[in-house]
């Protein structure tokens, strides 16, 4: 069992076998060859002087040569000396002095005495080299492998000495063995060799169970360590079993803080399950908090740890105000106890930043991300996964602010850090996809496609071939192909995504409906309206089966079907679909949501097509009122609605009102566009045409002159200026709310 441990110590030391320490081990072998030579080492059991080199036989008896002893020795004689305590305690002292080689030496010699194997000391079976070169910094580095941030999943690393009142409990070989095994397990923990540590604790556990209340080592501590090892190595079921057994002793254990630590650990397991059990996690954290508040000061770091863990559960449940409250309480304590530059402070700072980000407070989120970087970068280095992740979120904030130059700079830093820290990894793919999104939004489809394809290659290398992230990237690539008019390529990517989804989820999963809607949209844009209608209806059926009628995705499908029916000339059926979609959206969103305006706009267009100008105008005006409330009076999306209202008034001979609406269009365009933009030229042309139709020649000349001047400046042919004709709120518009999905 301990061979791997010996190799680990050898690795830590970097020393060659056969050096001074080998001489020391050989010296100890000489002293163990016979009990008669060990004047300074008395043993627990009285033996005849000729019983040197006792060995254990297969039947559990001890022998010396051909002489058999009729029974194994179980009890320590009352007049025995204290060799085993001395060896054990010396091992503890060496462990605390970071001399792990010598500590292991003492512990193994102690076990050899207890087992009657003094003629076979550990060094003959488990050769090790010196651990004297292990420094405190190396031990700290080893510990950092186990954790970087404190979740409170802490094992017991306090060794046990055989002295004082505890020595009185050591009334048998088994109990002495229990202590030594426990200490060896702790030594393994300190050396970051979990498997060997688990072996030691697992061998100690049945002895502690048998000893019951008279056990010199807490069975709770043993179970706690087994649980922590299981957790670290992803064996959550094994860890849970150990922790739950430990909690059976909660009423008789004097150290209630250890019970609190175990409760916190169980909460962590529930939190980290593939399907987190947030209710049980919160219950365990709550019990741990109750004990700690009763036994510790209000500003103790262990209270901050539980607060941070509770905050993570609320964050997972999307209860962001409650999560933020816990994080800020934890942060206040950690800053006070640990200082402002501690890594655990950085962890809570990051958590708070993420919560602010989710709440839409981008300024606060950015401040906290920056503080995390200030603390963590010097400790973790620039090439660390958490540094890469934080840089990604900072880039995301600049991205959301449309500060694209800063966003791309931070994305590139995140990508470099992620590649250095993780290599080919899903986080690297995530960064690449976000970079692709940014380029897509800027209309740079070539760069977007490059990043998406690079991300797809990473995902295919590290993820299962049916992983949902792959379908997202395929869909993004399909979107670019659609935007660039490469409809056949777009269909291929969408169909590949659909194939993965069908194999992963079955043919009735709601995600299937999203991809079907994308495919239907391609057919719509190819003017294959019958095929588009068929696929949209399949998507609608899936969504209705999954969600029922009162669902926004169902309403979206109905809107898309209404648009296709309009193209097919089925105006009555189109109106029916729009009205059903409107009813659903109003019941869920109320009357002033942007999506309500989309449906009203489409309904107005049908009225226009039917020649029902009054009904059309009423719906357009309702649309405009909602858009002003939802988007503000200066938003570019108001332009289209204003144009149609102006055109209706123009057709009805209400020229002054038509000019007023086109003038508002011009005002919004001039706020967000260069003066020579063709859209501004078109609006001025429309105003000029209305003035001409109204007989206002001077106003017409003024507007036309301005339009002509801008057209020439922008390189347009002034002869092409005209009043825009009627346009339907087409699916070709790049508006998420009007999309078929």
Automatic annotation (TrEMBL):
Pfam family, one: TPR_12
InterPro entries linked: TPR-like_helical_dom_sf, TPR_rpt
Repeat found in the keyword field: yes
Keyword terms, alphabetized: Repeat, TPR repeat
Organism superkingdom: Eukaryota
PROSITE patterns referenced in this protein's UniProt entry, alphabetically: TPR
SUPFAM superfamilies the UniProt entry points to: TPR-like
Entry coiled-coil feature ranges: none
Keyword field contains Disulfide bond: no
Spans of repeat TPR: 304-337, 346-379, 388-421, 429-462, 471-504, 597-630
Protein name, per record: Uncharacterized protein
Organism field: Pseudo-nitzschia multistriata
């Amino acid at each position: 069992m301990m061979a791997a441990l010996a190799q680990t110590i050898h690795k830590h030391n970097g020393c060659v076998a056969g050096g001074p320490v080998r001489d020391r081990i050989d010296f100890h072998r000489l002293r163990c060859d016979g009990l008669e030579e060990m004047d300074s080492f008395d043993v627990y059991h009285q033996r005849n002087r000729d019983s040197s080199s006792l060995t254990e036989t297969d039947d559990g008896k001890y022998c010396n040569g051909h002489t058999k002893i009729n029974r194994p020795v179980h009890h320590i004689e009352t007049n025995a000396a204290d060799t085993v305590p001395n060896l054990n305690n010396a091992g503890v002292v060496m462990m605390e002095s970071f001399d792990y080689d010598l500590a292991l030496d003492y512990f193994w010699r102690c076990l050899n005495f207890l087992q009657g194997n003094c003629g076979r000391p550990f060094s003959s079976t488990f050769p090790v080299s010196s651990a004297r070169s292990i420094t405190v910094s190396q031990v700290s580095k080893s510990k950092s492998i186990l954790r970087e941030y404190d979740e409170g999943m802490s094992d017991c690393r306090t060794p046990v000495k055989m002295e004082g009142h505890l020595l009185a409990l050591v009334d048998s070989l088994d109990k002495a063995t229990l202590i030594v095994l426990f200490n060896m397990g702790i030594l393994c923990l300190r050396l970051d060799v979990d498997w060997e540590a688990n072996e030691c604790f697992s061998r100690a556990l049945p002895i502690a169970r048998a000893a019951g209340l008279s056990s010199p080592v807490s069975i709770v501590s043993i179970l706690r360590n087994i649980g922590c090892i299981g957790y670290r190595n992803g064996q959550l079921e094994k860890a849970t079993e150990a922790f739950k057994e430990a909690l059976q002793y909660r009423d008789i254990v004097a150290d209630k803080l250890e019970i609190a630590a175990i409760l916190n650990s169980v909460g962590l397991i529930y939190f980290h399950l593939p399907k987190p059990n947030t209710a049980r996690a919160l219950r365990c954290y709550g019990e741990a908090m109750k004990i700690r508040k009763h036994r510790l000061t209000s500003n103790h770091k262990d209270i901050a740890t539980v607060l941070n863990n509770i905050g993570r559960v609320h964050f997972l449940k999307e209860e962001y105000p409650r999560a933020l409250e816990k994080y800020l309480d934890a942060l206040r304590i950690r800053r006070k106890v640990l200082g402002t530059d501690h890594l655990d402070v950085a962890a809570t700072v990051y958590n708070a930043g993420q919560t602010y980000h989710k709440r839409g407070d981008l300024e606060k989120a950015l401040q906290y991300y920056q503080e995390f970087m200030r603390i963590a970068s010097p400790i973790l280095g620039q090439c660390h996964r958490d540094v890469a992740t934080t840089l990604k979120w900072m880039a995301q904030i600049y991205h959301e602010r449309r500060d694209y130059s800063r966003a791309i700079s931070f994305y590139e830093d995140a990508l470099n850090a992620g590649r250095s820290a993780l290599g080919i990894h899903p986080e690297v793919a995530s960064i690449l996809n976000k970079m692709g999104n940014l380029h897509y939004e800027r209309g740079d489809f070539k760069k977007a496609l490059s990043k998406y394809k690079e991300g797809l290659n990473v995902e295919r290398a590290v993820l299962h071939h049916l992983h949902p992230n792959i379908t997202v990237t395929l869909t993004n690539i399909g979107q670019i192909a659609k935007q660039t008019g490469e409809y056949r390529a777009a269909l291929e990517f969408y169909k590949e995504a659909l194939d993965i989804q069908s194999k992963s989820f079955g043919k009735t999963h709601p995600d299937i409906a999203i991809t079907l809607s994308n495919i239907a949209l391609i057919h719509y844009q190819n003017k294959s309206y019958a095929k588009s209608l068929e696929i949209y209806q399949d998507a609608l059926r899936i969504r209705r089966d999954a969600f029922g009628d009162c669902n926004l995705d169902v309403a979206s499908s109905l809107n898309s079907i209404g648009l296709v029916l309009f193209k097919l000339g089925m105006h009555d059926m189109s109106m029916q679909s729009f009205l059903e979609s409107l009813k659903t959206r109003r019941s869920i969103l109320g009357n002033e949501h942007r999506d309500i305006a989309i449906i009203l706009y489409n309904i107005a267009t049908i009225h226009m097509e039917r020649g029902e100008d009054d009904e059309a105008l009423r719906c357009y005006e309702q649309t405009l009122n909602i858009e002003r409330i939802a988007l503000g009076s200066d938003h570019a999306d108001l332009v289209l609605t204003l144009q149609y209202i102006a055109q209706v008034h123009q057709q009805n001979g209400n020229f002054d009102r038509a000019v007023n609406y086109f003038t508002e269009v011009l005002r919004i365009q001039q706020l967000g566009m260069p003066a020579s933009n063709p859209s501004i030229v078109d609006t001025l042309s429309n105003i000029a045409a209305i003035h001409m139709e109204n007989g206002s020649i001077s106003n017409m000349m003024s507007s036309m002159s301005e339009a002509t001047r801008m057209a020439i400046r922008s390189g347009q042919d002034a002869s092409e200026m005209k009043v825009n004709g009627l346009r339907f709120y087409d699916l070709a518009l790049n508006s998420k709310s009007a999309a078929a999905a």
